[in-house]
Design brief:
Blueprint (H helix, E strand, L loop, with lengths): L6 H9 L6 E5 L10 H5 L3 E5 L3 H10 L5 E4 L2 E2 L4 E8 L2 E4 L6 H5 L8 E8 L11 E4 L5 H6 L7 E5 L1 E2 L2 E2 L3 H10 L2 E6 L3 E6 L7 H33 L1
Parallel strand pairs: 1-2, 1-8, 2-3, 4-7, 8-9
Antiparallel strand pairs: 5-6, 5-7, 9-13, 10-11, 12-13
Length: about 240
């Protein structure tokens, strides 16, 4: 059984004394690795979005007695059908120019499991009351943000990892600035933003943010250098 390994997000939110009334996660994969797992177990109203049929069955079984509304769709910037690629824990829109699997793992579309899912705009499932959201859609996080009705106090989304940078990072940052969100912290793959004034950001938070961003950048440089060395050796 996969054990929940994403307690850091929950613990950081709890330490700030923030108690969400409505949480959401777009891109769940396995329920016990959910970024909002503990909130769901505690009975917080939850909206989940997941297009992968295998993950959907796991989610239904795990959270059948909880306050969960599950949308079996992929969030896109259009309604209709979309082709998705699945590679281990990564499920991503096949038309994306960049995703963690494509960039870090040299994933080939032909080597993945592909399937077609229903695509939906996020504003059609967002009732405006979400106050904490986690988004991990392997490169298409912007499609959630751009059509979001709610203005959550906390937004966690995958923005980086290894040599990967979210292909819509400029659009995401512009949206955050426009809507008065500030960066709270980063980890190996995610950036967590808070609505200005909703959660106190301390001097220690700011110091830790600088340290974390430096660590992420150094890992990026190491990965880039390693990749260049491998290319050089293959040419010899």
């Amino acid at each position: 059984m996969i054990q929940n390994c994403n307690n850091t997000f929950y613990n950081k939110v709890e330490q700030k004394g923030f108690r969400p009334a409505h949480v959401a996660e777009v891109g769940v994969w396995h329920p016990q690795t959910s970024n909002i797992y503990k909130f769901i177990i505690e009975g917080v109203k939850t909206t989940l979005v997941e297009p992968d049929p295998a993950s959907i069955e796991l989610i239904k079984n795990e959270f059948k007695d909880k306050k969960v509304t599950l949308y079996e769709v992929a969030i896109c910037d259009f309604n209709g059908k979309v082709d998705l690629c699945k590679r281990e824990s990564s499920t991503f829109i096949s038309s994306l120019s960049s995703s963690p699997a494509l960039v870090n793992d040299n994933c080939k579309i032909s080597e993945t499991e592909t399937f077609t899912a229903n695509a939906k705009l996020f504003n059609e499932i967002d009732d405006g009351s979400i106050d904490l959201i986690s988004i991990d859609t392997e490169g298409s996080e912007w499609f959630v943000i751009k059509n979001m009705v709610s203005r959550p106090a906390i937004i966690s989304l995958e923005t980086h990892g290894g040599i990967y940078t979210n292909p819509y990072m400029m659009e995401i940052q512009h949206w955050m600035d426009k809507n008065k969100y500030v960066l709270w912290y980063v980890d190996n793959s995610d950036s967590v933003y808070v609505l200005d004034g909703s959660i106190p950001i301390t001097v220690l938070d700011k110091i830790n943010l600088v340290k974390s961003k430096t660590f992420v950048f150094l890992k990026y440089l190491k990965k880039r250098l390693s990749k260049k060395i491998r290319r050089f050796l293959r040419k010899k």
